Amino acid sequence: xxxxxxxxAAAVNQARAEAGLGPLAVDPLLNQAAQSHxxxxxxxxxxxxYGSDGSTVEMRVARTGYAQNPWxxxxxxxxxxxxxxxxxxxxxxxxxxNILNGNWQEIGVGVGTRNGEMIFVTVFSGDSGDAPxxxxxxxxxxxxxxxPPPAQPLTIPAEGMDYTIRPGDTxxxxxxxxxxxxxxxxxxxxLSENALLQIGQVIRLPGANAPAANTPADA
Length: 219
Description:
Layout: H1 3-18, E1 25-26, H2 28-44, H3 57-63, E2 71-79, H4 82-91, H5 93-99, E3 104-114, E4 117-126, H6 142-146, E5 161-164, H7 171-177, H8 182-189, E6 202-205
Parallel strand pairs: 1-3
Antiparallel strand pairs: 2-4, 3-4, 5-6
Helix pairs in contact: 2-3, 7-8
């Protein structure tokens, strides 16, 4: 378990302690499930709670042979630091509730980097069916589940394009998917790195012909 992953687990348990909740035990199989999803996102440019093969967190946990607890859930985010990841999670209602779920007993953490950006995944497990899901989209179709992942980032037209925010998106995850940087997206939309994006919100992805802009100090 990397130092960054250990720091995430410690930060999650600190947040739980501040809320009067007990700590989560780190489980190596949950670590494996979390890290496999991080590696998938890093290698295949597929960002979200579904893997490039259409897998869910339940499927990824089952593949490890983990059978301690029947209920699992997952948080993920891309950020430049552990502190940034925790800030985003704790400022977002659904992810905060996931971290502060009193039914969880164990945690697994995966961390990876791509082009200097960090991707974090936490997998939670407990024995209660009251566990909230980190994201609740419809199950992907067979076509989505079996479609091969893109080998390269998606392309932004020279004139730029609009992008509609989906569940789990952050400036960093969108930037990684389109081969740009979060600084470019922040500057084009007047946002800061850890700005909370709303599902359905439309942001601008600047192309090569977009005028230069300065990232705001605060947002």
